[in-house]
From TrEMBL:
Its EC number is 3.6.1.54. It is an enzyme of class 3 (hydrolase). CDD domains: MPP_YbbF-LpxH. This is UDP-2,3-diacylglucosamine diphosphatase. The lineage of its organism: Bacteria, Pseudomonadati, Verrucomicrobiota, Verrucomicrobiia, Verrucomicrobiales.
Length: 289
């Protein structure tokens, strides 16, 4: 059994996974479609030396317009703080466009907690530049009003989607994502306007980095763009994905269903459970409950 192999608890069969670093983005706390419960469940049952919250964790745009904060969103914040306090996890919070209210505070650093707009992540293979990525979206950068209008449209699609998927569920059909379908239809247009991945690749090269880790566009990815390793952590509104750096230094995408399967846990529903976890044992890569 290697250092990365899960260690099952014979009594429950449940595990805690251990990674060197976890990167998540776009949780959009404050939105009704935020999967805060699932994000909390994931973080609560994974150990890591560093947790990078790569922008749009809090959706200040939505909160200013409509409110919507709930106990599950508070529990997510508590989960992050508990990892810092009980597990000595280093927390890096990078501001995004939806939580741009943080601009007035950055950079700010406490003992194990930093708020900033970009971060250099050191690996054995070289440095990775970590940014949210909104600065390389032509719409977000040059037409903020259009980006906010697009946010309203996205929220509307999500609300319609909830009703439509409830209907599909009654008929025994799989859920369907309107927003993913719309994104696919306009993918070529967005690529021509923004050239998002290419611009991020160029920035990484300018900073002398071998890779770039971003979020923003809600499209998880792990690929080479030219000679640059491009990683996008996706989101916790629909896809429920993260980028993890394993103990051997390799990177991979992990989805919430995959996390549940690997730890032998049942998926959470819409409401986060507020159970307290016992302090984790840092010596194993997967800790039994």
């Amino acid at each position: 059994m290697s250092a990365d192999d899960p260690v099952p608890n014979p009594a429950t069969g449940k595990l805690k996974l251990r990674f060197k670093t976890i990167f998540i983005s776009d949780v959009h706390l404050g939105m009704p479609d935020s999967k805060a419960a699932q994000a909390s469940h994931f973080l609560r049952n994974c150990l890591c030396e560093k947790l990078v919250l790569n922008g749009d964790i809090i959706d200040a745009w939505h909160l200013r317009r409509m409110g919507g904060w709930n106990k599950g969103h508070t529990h997510f914040i508590r989960t992050v703080l508990r990892k810092m306090e009980k597990e000595s996890t280093e927390i890096i919070y990078l501001r995004g466009n939806h939580d741009d209210v943080l601009d007035r505070f950055i950079p700010i650093q406490f003992e194990h907690f930093m708020i900033t707009d970009e971060h250099i992540h050191h690996t054995r293979a070289g440095d990775y530049l970590v940014v949210h990525g909104d600065g390389f979206d032509a719409v977000s950068t040059n037409h903020a009003w259009l980006a906010q209008l697009g946010g309203l449209g996205y929220n509307f699609l999500l609300r319609i989607n909830r009703l439509y998927n409830a209907y599909r569920g009654l008929r025994g059909k799989e859920p369907f994502s309107f927003s993913a379908w719309v994104k696919q239809k306009v993918k070529s247009t967005i690529g021509a306007v923004g050239k998002y991945e290419e611009q991020l690749q160029n920035l990484a090269k300018q900073r002398g980095c071998v890779g770039i880790i971003c979020g923003h566009i809600h499209k998880v990815d792990n690929k080479m763009v030219g000679s640059t390793h491009y990683l996008n952590s996706g989101d916790w509104v629909e896809s429920m994905t993260a980028i993890v750096e394993n103990l051997d230094g390799s990177f991979e995408i992990i989805t919430y269903p995959e996390f549940c399967e690997r730890t032998h846990r049942d998926p959470k529903g819409a409401v986060a459970e507020a159970e307290e976890e016992t302090p984790a044992n840092p010596e194993s890569s997967a800790i039994p409950m």
